[in-house]
Design goal:
Shape of chain B: elongated
CATH superfamily of the largest domain in chain A: P-loop containing nucleotide triphosphate hydrolases
Structural class of chain A: alpha/beta
Number of strands of chain A: 14
Strand content of chain B: under 5%
Largest interface: A-B, 35 and 28 residues
Order of helices and strands of chain B: HHEHEHEEHHHHHHHHHHHH
Oligomer: heterodimer
Number of strands of chain B: 4
Largest sheet of chain B: 4 strands, mixed
Largest sheet of chain A: 6 strands, mixed
Helix content of chain A: 25-40%
Radius of gyration of chain A: 24 Å
Strand order of the largest sheet of chain A: 6-7-8-3-9-10
Number of helices of chain B: 16
Number of domains of chain A: 2
Distance between the termini of chain B: 26 Å
Number of helices of chain A: 11
CATH class of the largest domain in chain A: Alpha Beta
């Protein structure tokens, strides 16, 4: 459905997209993840043919993207990062305006607008102007404006930024419903837990490049840390860190007061090995917890930085 | 969505905007009030033809009779004096370009201007039947006699171009690199031609509404009759509206400047052009016309001011169509450029 092949986009000396490639299949939710300025929005703008790129190819629905390729544009929706709604139009009018850019038939448009209002749960607010809406409701309106025409492919650029928990859950549930209807969604976000729960596959971007992609499991396999175990141990032994590091599969150990964070490269009996070690030393542990490698670990290891850097 | 629906939305968006109400209605009405305070005798001005007498077989009879705003009658000097004293006639032409008057006033000054110009034309070797009627009768002295007239015509000319504010707003809003809404619009398959048409119709409708309101205030509330030739003036103003909207579209396309900054540029520009055309009083216009006449030849506000003055105050239609064509040509150029730029446009940065 989407094929982006070695796309390069330069702003003078700055390379915003550096031979960036990725593919998305029909009916999947694909996440574009990366820190600010990594090229997520630039990639989306190139796919929407809003931005001219220097080299590479982009095909959507098997056709090359082009500013005047209306057959492709007609099947695409956009939920931009910023609120893109008219302050002077009410909820219904805003949705009708944007839906009207795609749908000329008045009866069909009326039905689609009603469905969009219901989809984002804004029936009570249909006559409200955006100024009267909360931040979360504005975000919902922003989404309704982008998907009212029921596109086959929807680009959602950080749709849950600055949204309260209730609205966020509402939005995420809506996205799942769209996927259930067979829609393809390209989703960018800062919230890794959101991406993990929502996306079928992810593309991790850094400095305009695709540095890793795949499912969460596939991405986990690309990094050295598979499991993190945190243990609290009271001991006077000074070399406890090096002893913990000698455990099977252990890669590194970080100490914080009496707690130790042990990174393991494989998920193989790490907890039982640790407990055996503690018992052999006649020590007691105050707490013990284990966590599989998260997207945050993957991101940190692959890029050397936190996602919000 | 058809053009009509898009136009309605664009009108709603602009109509609810404070900037529209201030710049296209409040500001011109404030200027009107200011002009009325400073030129309180304007309401007494009546735009009537000038009654003049001329001696029998005078060489200028034919030329003077061809001027639309002069009612010329052949008579003796005694009869003329009698009529002038009765207030029925402004002036009497006799002898060698001599003008007999019994009082001074606007009509007498206009007659004197006419005679002076005819004399200078004849002295330059041009026969009286080839007198150039174009522009001659609104020279500096007659405008100086009725400065408030020029102020109001200049004000009306200025507001006729105010459609540019709406079109700047419309086009800037639909540019992805200038507005968030623009990204959505550009990503959609909606026709740029339809957008352009809706923007033009919407901006024209809004500005014609505000123009009409201001003219009603001037004519009914202030009791100033500036329009003896109403329909030709309306046609001229509609043409100017069309040009103003086109200029706003061009300005709206300029990248990297937001709509608010463009509106300020437009305000400064239009006030500057209006000042050159007489909005701040005729002296500046006289200096420009005397020393750098080409400026006001290409100044659409000055062209519109002069033409409205000529057709309504002097009954002179000589430059009417050239002004209409000048404004229409500008508009055509603006719209063509806008459409070409809008189509196939992608952006270096968003």
């Amino acid at each position: 459905m989407i094929m982006m092949d070695k796309v390069v986009k330069r702003y003078n000396e700055l390379i915003a997209l550096d031979h960036f490639s990725f593919e998305a299949a029909e009916g999947e939710i694909i996440g574009l993840l990366g820190p600010n300025g990594c090229g997520k929005t630039t990639a989306i703008n190139c796919m929407l043919s809003l931005l001219a790129f220097d080299s590479g190819d982009i095909e959507i629905f098997g056709e090359k993207v082009h500013p005047n390729n209306n057959s492709v544009k007609r099947r695409i929706g956009l939920v931009p990062q910023e609120l893109s709604i008219f302050d002077k139009l009410n909820v219904y009018e805003n949705i009708d305006f944007y839906c009207g850019l795609y749908v000329s038939d008045k009866t069909k448009r009326r039905r689609l607008v009603e469905e969009a209002i219901e989809f984002v749960g804004m029936d009570r607010y249909r006559k409200f102007i955006p100024k009267k809406l909360s931040g979360g409701l504005k975000r919902r309106l922003n989404i309704a404006c982008g998907m009212a025409h029921q596109p086959d492919l929807l680009f959602m650029d950080e749709p849950t930024v600055a949204v309260d928990a209730q609205s966020r859950n509402f939005i995420l549930e809506g996205i799942r419903q769209m996927k259930a209807r067979g829609k393809t969604i390209v989703y960018t976000t800062h919230y890794l837990e959101e991406a993990e729960n929502l996306c079928d596959r992810m593309v991790i971007m850094d400095a305009g490049r695709n540095i890793a992609h795949g499912t969460v499991e596939q991405l986990q396999n690309q990094i050295s840390t598979q499991e993190r175990v945190e243990v609290g141990v009271i001991t006077d032994e000074s070399d406890i860190e090096s002893q913990l590091e000698a455990l099977p599969n252990a890669v590194s150990v970080n100490r914080k007061n009496d707690n130790y964070m042990i990174h393991f490269e494989k998920q193989e009996n790490n907890i039982s090995n640790l407990i055996k070690f503690i018992e052999s030393k006649d020590l007691t542990y105050t707490e013990l917890s284990s966590e599989k490698a998260t997207l945050s670990d993957i991101f940190l290891e692959l890029t050397g930085k936190e996602l919000r850097d | 969505m058809n053009i009509f629906r898009m136009t309605i939305y664009l009108i709603i968006i602009n109509f609810k905007d404070f900037g529209y109400w201030f710049w296209t209605l409040c500001y011109p009405l404030l200027l009107c009030a200011l002009f009325m305070m400073t030129t309180s005798n304007m309401s007494n001005t009546e735009l009537e033809d000038i009654n003049a007498g001329i001696e029998n077989d005078h060489p200028l009879s034919e030329a003077l009779a061809s001027i639309e705003f002069i009612n010329l009658e052949t008579m003796t000097e005694d009869a003329a004096v009698e009529q002038m004293e009765a207030g029925e006639m402004a002036a009497y032409v006799h002898g060698d370009y001599e003008l007999l008057v019994t009082e001074s006033g606007f009509n007498q000054t206009v007659m004197e201007d006419v005679l002076t110009q005819m004399q200078s034309t004849v002295e330059s070797g041009i026969p009286p039947q080839h007198f150039d009627m174009d522009a001659s009768f609104i020279d500096a002295s007659s405008q100086d006699t009725q400065p408030e007239t020029v102020l109001f015509y200049s004000l009306i000319a200025m507001i006729a171009f105010y459609g540019m504010f709406s079109s700047i707003e419309f086009i800037s809003t639909m540019q992805p690199n200038l507005s968030h809404m623009g990204a959505r619009f550009a990503a959609s398959p909606y026709s740029k031609g339809k957008l352009l048409a809706a923007s033009v119709i919407g901006a024209m409708a809004l500005n014609l509404f505000s123009n009409t309101f201001i003219l009603i205030v001037i004519i009914i509330f202030y009791q100033i009759n500036l329009f003896t030739e109403l329909w030709p003036t309306i046609f001229l103003l509609i043409t100017a509206n069309f040009t103003g909207v086109g200029f706003g579209l061009i300005l709206g396309l300029v990248p990297k400047i937001n709509a608010a900054a463009k509106t300020i540029i437009a305000i400064v520009l239009i006030i500057g052009l209006a000042a050159l055309s007489g909005l701040m009083g005729p002296p500046l216009k006289q200096v420009i016309d005397g020393n750098l006449p080409w400026i006001n030849t290409f100044n659409p506000v000055a062209r519109l001011t002069d033409t409205m003055y000529r057709i309504n105050f002097l009954g002179n239609f000589n430059d009417y169509w050239s002004t209409v064509i000048f404004l229409a040509a500008l508009a055509l150029a603006f719209y063509t450029i806008t459409l070409v730029v809008l189509r196939r446009k992608q952006y270096d940065s968003i």
